[in-house]
Amino acid sequence: MIAGFANIFRIPELKRRILFSLGLLIVYRIGVQIPVPGVDSSALASIFAAAKGTLLGLVDMFSGGALERLSVFALGIMPYISSSIILQLLTAVVPHLEQLKKEGEQGRKKITQYTRYGTVVLSIIQGFGIAVGLETMTAPGGAAVVLHPGWSFRLLTVITLTAGTAFIMWLGEQITERGIGNGISLIIFSGIVCRMPVAIGQTFQLLSTGEIGIFLVITLLALMVVVVGVIIFVEQGQRRIPVQYAKRVVGRRMYGGQSTHLPLKINSSGVIPPIFASSIIMFPATIASFIKIPWVQTISDAIRPGQLFYELLFVGFIFFFCYFYTAVTFNPTDVADNMKKAGGFIPGIRPGRRTAEYIDKVLSRITLGGAFYVSAICVLPSILISHFNVPFYFGGTALLIVVGVAIDTISQIESHMLTRHYEGFLKGGAGRVRGRS
Fold first, then answer.
1. 152 with 242, same domain?
2. How far apart are CA 166 and CA 75, in angstroms?
């Protein structure tokens, strides 16, 4: 492992890509510290201190704390992610987008362009909503968040936040093209990881004061190692369906006849289900928190993280979106038709409709296991915080993103090393790190 990391700096191109990616991530973290004019930072921070279980807290996690400071990068990369997801879902129902997807590189470029336009539109809408919402907010002490409310503040906020999101989107694309790893994922990764020192400091502070015991800390460390190991194992897990291609004679040459497999991932939907589930549940909770009516407050308290009703609803939505997103992004009928046209077949299964039904049956079963796995990881933080008084957030969507991005980035670095005849991080063919894609 150590020798593998040492080999990174022996490859000039790989070294340049890694340093380029780190440089742009530093630029992003600097931008997180630059606030939007006209906002009382202390009053806004006191509001976010009480918003950890709402949609504001969720968005702030993905923005790396930028929303809490209302920096120029306050919207983060979430508008781009939302636009990408919307385009993926529309691809299944809009014939024009479906045709573009099948046109190869040119079609993907067009869809990327539409995604950028959608990002700007969503940023304008969200920026205006944040500006108007901030004007109505007051800190627990009664101080107004916005110093000089009005249309000038709204327009300035919308322009600043939209420009910030567009700049982050450009940073992510530059990292993907000229750096290492997926730029958008690495930006989210950096925003989540940057909070780890604070969590570690809080843990040592509680340990020194005697509020938590050393046995609990050791148990948590062991649990972290086990959970991360399970995530790595499952994220790289595949159900391989054997595929045989028939021999074909073209002229005087014979083609085909080889055996291969169709890989189906256990968690093919990634982190999309928990993100969607959290957003849907926390949106009414966030709205209800501003309505001072007793029965509305009761509903708001019932759908906060840690409550039984919230956890059951959360798991239910995760299962729904696991199956829904998998059905939208993977079409067994198209796979079976393409396999049949290429002369491929699954041993023991007739080509065509029977093959599509078999693939759909296998996919449904492994998606069920993936849904249980995602639900367990996402419910873990609530259990640790409510029952064991853990002073930091461990697990959930953030941990899935961090581990998944780390796996993808390491696999890309290893690919660069292997193409230049260097040993990867893990020696031996069985130890190669596979990316999620």
1. no
2. 10
Residue pair 24/58 in contact (Cβ under 8 Å)? The answer is no
User: Among candidates 300, 303, 323, which has minimal Cα distance to 313?
Assistant: 303
Residues 33 and 77 in one domain: yes
Residues 134 and 270 in one domain: no
Q: What is the pLDDT of residues 13-27, one digit of tens each?
A: 888 888 999 999 999
Question: How many angstroms separate the CA atoms of 62 and 60, rounded?
Answer: 5
The token pair that represents 112 in the structure block: 């990327």
- Quote the percentage of the chain above a pLDDT of 70: 81
- Number of separate domains in the chain: 2
Is 418 among the domain residues?
no
Cβ atoms 322, 370 nearer than 8 A = yes
Please provide residue 210's backbone torsions phi and psi, each rounded to the nearest 5 degrees.
85, 10
391 pLDDT higher than 80: no
In 3D space, the residue among 320, 304, 319, 318 whose CA is nearest the CA of residue 382 turns out to be 304
Sign of torsion, CA 171 174 180 183? positive
State the CB neighbour count (10 A cutoff) for residue 316. 13
If 0-12 CB within 10 Å is exposed, 13-18 middle and 19+ buried, where does residue 157 land?
buried
Element (H, E) at 262: strand 259-265
**Structure-token match 């256990």, residue found:** 266
How far is it, in rounded angstroms, from Cα 21 to Cα 339? 39
Kindly report whether the global pTM for this prediction surpasses the value 0.85.
Answer: no
CA–CA gap between residue 118 and residue 427 (Å, rounded): 44
Residues 138 and 39 in one domain: yes
Per-residue CA distances from 292 to 58, 282, 297, 304 (Å):
22, 17, 7, 16
With 90 as the cut, is the pLDDT of residue 368 above it?
yes
Range of the domain at 161: 1-194
Helix (H) or strand (E) holding 107, with range, is helix 105-136
